Amino acid sequence: MATTRMSPGFEARSLGVLRAGPSRFVARRIASIVLTLFFVLTFTFLLTFSIPTDPARAVVGPKGTAEQVATVRENLGLDDPLPAQYARYMGRALTGDLGYSYSQRRAVSDLIAERLPYTALLALGALVVQVGLGVSVGVLAASRAGGAFDRSALAAALLVISLPGFWVGLVLLYLLAYRLPVFPLGGNDFPLGLVLPSLALGIAGAAWYSRITREAIVDILNTDMVRALRAKGMPPRTILLKHSLRAAAGPVITMLAIDFGFLLGGAVVIETVFSWPGLGLTAYQAMQRNDVPLLMGCVIVGSLFVLVLNTVADVARAFLDPRVRL
Amino acid sequence: MSDLLRVEDLVVRFPAPGGRTVHAVSGVSFAVERGETLAIVGESGSGKSTTARAVLRLIEPTTGRITFDGVEVGAQRGKALRRLRLRMQMVFQDPYSSLDPQFTVGRSVAEPLVVHRLGRDRAEARRRVDELLDLVGLDPAIASRYPRTLSGGQRQRVAIARAVALNPDLIICDEPVSALDVSIQAQILNLLMDLQARLGLSYVVITHDLAVVSEISDRVIVMYLGHIVESGPRAQVLGSPLHPYTAALLAAAQPPDPGGAASRSDRVVMRGDPASPLDPPSGCVFRTRCPRAADVCTNPPPAFSDGDGHTAWCFFPMSQDAPGDVAGRGA
Amino acid sequence: MSGSDPVLTVEGLSVAFTAGGSRTRPVEEVSFAVGRGDRFGIVGESGSGKSLTLLAIAGLVDHPGHVAADTLRLEDADLLSISRSRRRAVLGTRMSMILQDPLASLSPVWSVGEQIAETLRRHTRMPRSAAREETIELLAQVGIPDPRRRADSFPHQLSGGMRQRVAIAIAMSCAPIVLLADEPTTALDVSIQAQILDLLVEVCESRGMALVMVTHDLAALSRAAVGVGVMYAGRIVESGSLDRIRTAPAHPYTQALLLSAPHLAPARARSRLHTIPGAPPSPDKRPAGCPFHPRCPYVMDVCRTVRPPLVPIGDGVSAACHLVPAVFAGGGS
């Protein structure tokens, strides 16, 4: 019964590779996302009607004449009946045309395409901080639950969570970009310019993840599963990392993916503090200038990311935990 | 008609994910007479608990007729159903979860009285609660305590007091002693038998424990995968089982005779694991594990009666030769 | 017990918990010895401390529990004083354990094959492919059909009986001398219980493995054990061979337990069961003197104040009761 090649053992097979049904799952999910997006688009469209600004006036500017305003109104089709405007709006959205930004004088889609990579980078940076720092601290705290490190980790987490994000950002800027000019004072330098905003954005999340990870692992360490592993004579590191962490990963992964989705929508405060030209800063500027199309564009893109990342979260969980069925 | 409860062709099916169906109960018929104890024996997946819940209409039967004291249970609605429910009560398996931990014992026992608006005032309800606690052998002072301070046996007594509160005719006990220590099981079984004599109760006792069946029941039905495979008086079913499944359960439950002739391998031991109610075998559902199975068993098995109301549904009951050879095949 | 030297010796084992200001001893002065290939069953009800005894032997009792013993020896290894790394080497190789609920004790995220193989790789340093082949062989030995395919299944995909077979495969993978089993059949269906108990007996007999099995189920005890220890309120109150204890129990608790347990006796007419009044005490509320005295039908004055020691009373039986005369073992059986 010799095998012709070395069997890789069981570990590869244990990576819960998607079983029968993933294509059905993906199809169902895509349909769901499309439907949700449809509602988001409709909602944002209706919302634009409740904003007191007159878009035509916004384009022309405060110094424009009533005639100019009227012309613009006609050009933008703002006097057309509601269903016609709606149809036009949806039609354009489907082709990726999200309108025209009054304040920046450019197509919204172009602006977003330009700014999105920055937001994505920042989101990734923050995620690295959250997971890297948060999960490591959580695992260490759980492995010596009740000890000095665990207690200090809790205190630190509570402290960090209560700090306002912009304050953390400003303090980091002050200490590490001004007093000790290690990092740039904001702007979109890469990679150094990414470090401080990632830290500022990720640190609160890291505190959350450290607590979640710690709780999940401590719970698992008290189960029969761990008792049985110890009865097998498995070393603590294996019990912690190979078994407990993986069994605890479910809630962490779910939160992670959802977090990522939100981060991709733009972190307004941090981007503003660090002048990081991502979607968050864009949205903030749009708000300041009453630039409704741009703002709505950011909202829609943000929603899309949340929806997609939710799906990714479910797939990741099924990948890691074979009990989860799609 | 002396039958208190009559169940005819009860079928309960549940939808399962993936468009499949769980065939929990597949055509079960039995009757319970006044004042008697009927035991329903089976393992997990046999459908015994589902049957009990369907009788009480805690689950809606898919098809079938349930008649309680001449009244058809399925046809009742609203107030009439509530009145019927007064007369049938249930005691659950786990005394640790069947009592609301937020309620004191007194409140749990009084709850049925309150819900059905029996008892004119609080003082009378209190008196009744004391009476009931005394009836089940508990000190009435226990009424102000919470379930978490009580032992398993005490909690089960409280659950019984609660079930008896409405003076029901029938009590269905779902594994009433399985979660209890051995020495406490005897106390609770005695209590149930005493209450039966005092209050004229009828019981349906659902259990997997054949020893409990032996101590407490008058008649027994044995269920496997949603079907009744054998039914009859206790002494006959347990003493001279007709169906191979009953025989196998008895063999599994009885300790090997140390000085006895039969070696471990001779006794009827079932092969493998219970089949799934999602995909029951055709014909006789036990044929996949039965040491006496033959080709003909893919057809629905006929009833074979021993007289005395002792019946099994099998092509090769234990009182006859097994197919193929005389001594029967062991495991 | 076989005439050879015992492989597991337990003398004066106690487990204490200190919580707040109070101290409880769920296990007190437990002593027994198990020879090669012996099968020893520990039977008791809740509050008897039987499961904790097993965990203490395996060294799995954590703070705030504290284990103490006069002797706790596995062959030549002193289990009390060995280092943690030595203990990890012992567990899984010379002594292994199976727990009550295999669904809870197996890791849900790894295949059953991997869980067996990791034990092999850890303790014997086998290469992966050899471990896989050995795993499949073990699965076949514990009666799992189609073992090559089943090795890749996850615990939740298997039935309760099969999961427990996997647990047994893990436990026997490195050929231990002693197998500890904590209520191995409680979570299983009746028909499967018999299969699993028979499997345990067969595995122990074929490999010369000793078995220490904890249970509350008298039928399970009868099916698997040869020697029995009856525990009550943290102590062994009677020990001896299964046959002797079943037919002529010496301690009043054992007598009452055997009498009151529901019996399968179809010919007998329905009658009230024999009961033991009261309930087993919890560890923090143990009576003084003999812990069984409040429930004992033969209680004497001395029982209320003086705790009876566990002494041999002849025929290989020991009992802890003032009523039963001690017989010096010098006279032989």
Q: What does the largest sheet of chain B look like?
A: 8 strands, mixed
The most extensive contact between chains is: B-C, 50 and 41 residues
- Helix-residue proportion of chain C: 25-40%
Q: How are the strands of the largest sheet of chain C arranged? A: 7-8-9-3-10-11-13-12
Strand content of chain C: 15-25%
What is the element string of chain B, with H for helices and E for strands? EEEHEEHEHHHEHEHEEHHEE
Task: Kindly describe this structure.
The complex is a heterotrimer of chains A (326), B (331) and C (333). Chain A has 326 residues and is an all-alpha fold. Chain A folds into two domains: 88 residues, no CATH class; 209 residues, Orthogonal Bundle (MetI-like fold), CATH 1.10.3720.10. Chain A is built from 14 helices and two strands, in the order αααααββααααααααα. Chain A has a two-stranded antiparallel ribbon with strand order 1-2. In chain A, α8 crosses α9 and α9 crosses α11. The longest helix of chain A has 36 residues. Chain A is flat and about 85 Å long. Chain B has a domain of 90 residues. Chain B has nine helices and twelve strands. Chain B has an eight-stranded mixed sheet with strand order 6-7-8-3-9-10-12-11, sandwiched between helices. A four-stranded antiparallel sheet of chain B has the order 2-1-4-5, with helices on one face. In chain B, α3 packs parallel to α5 and α5 packs parallel to α6. The longest helix of chain B is centred in the middle third of the chain and has 18 residues. The C terminus of chain B is likely disordered. By secondary structure, chain C is α/β, with parallel strands linked by helices. Chain C is built from twelve helices and 13 strands. In chain C, the strands form two sheets. In chain C, strands 7-8-9-3-10-11-13-12 form an eight-stranded mixed sheet, with helices on both faces. In chain C, strands 1, 2, 4, 5 and 6 form a five-stranded antiparallel sheet that branches. Chain C starts with 5 loop residues before the first strand and ends in a 14-residue tail after the last strand. Classes of the chains: A mainly alpha (326), B alpha/beta (331), C alpha/beta (333). Chains B and C meet through α5, α6, α7, α8 and α9 of B and α8, α9 and α11 of C.
